[in-house]
Amino acid sequence: MTELRKTVERFWAAAEARDWTAFAETLAEDVVYTLPQTRERIAGRERYVQFNREYPGDWHLRTERIVAEPGQVVTWAHFTVGLEEMYAITFFTGTEKITSITEFWPEPYEPPAGRDHLSERY
Amino acid sequence: MTELRKTVERFWAAAEARDWTAFAETLAEDVVYTLPQTRERIAGRERYVQFNREYPGDWHLRTERIVAEPGQVVTWAHFTVGLEEMYAITFFTGTEKITSITEFWPEPYEPPAGRDHLSERY
Which residues of B touch A115 (CB under 8 A)? Predict the structure, then answer.
């Protein structure tokens, strides 16, 4: 198991537990968080912890899948906020601590016409 | 480098080249393609190759990031269709050939209010 994978597992466990001290310990001081969909960036551990601490809603998460190699980890996490369900796909880099986080929040959409001869809905 | 990573690199290169024979060779016969956002599933190599071959638009791709461990690979691919830009995040499993593909297409959205004291737009 890679070092960074263990750090990322602690990151998600601390987020779910709202243990912001343990959460901060997984992050490099100059960590950068990037959301390509909104083109937002949050620079620095303090701001990023605050962003998570202030995030509204009674959200809960579980990790569906983790793929790790030395220095890079990706997670697919399932979030619930009440009855609402969401996924986050998160790319982490770092060595022992996390130095960059790039996150995607894909939303449900209706399939385009013209492919129901190949696909099934589930 | 893992075996599956090499297969996934061939998969994307063949897609970009519209080389559907080489593309099919990367896939197990019973490959399953899943789109959680639309809850669509396409079962079997033949249908999945047809789905890609029929996909409309002059799309082009490059892989931004690959994370691989034995049996699991994730890619973040950047697509262009004319002036439109999109990302696909794709989770692959398999050994030598690809047996499952789960893909997300995150779309741009406006950031919620109340976090611009922490974030910057880029």
Answer: 40, 51, 54
CA of B85 to nearest chain A CA: how many angstroms apart?
11
Q: Which CATH number fits domain B3-104: 2.130.10.10, 3.10.450.50, 3.30.70.100, 3.40.50.1370?
A: 3.10.450.50
User: Which chain B residues are Cβ-neighbours of A92 within 8 angstroms?
Assistant: none
DSSP B26-85: TEEEEEEEEETTTTEEEESHHHHHHHHHH--S-EEEEEEEEEEETTEEEEEEEEEETTEE
CB spacing of B104 vs A115 below 8 angstroms: no
Q: What is the pLDDT of residues A98-116, one digit of tens each?
A: 999 999 999 999 998 888 8
Name the pTM for this structure. 0.95
Interface predicted TM-score (ipTM): 0.93
Q: Closest chain B residue to A66 measured between Cα atoms?
A: B72
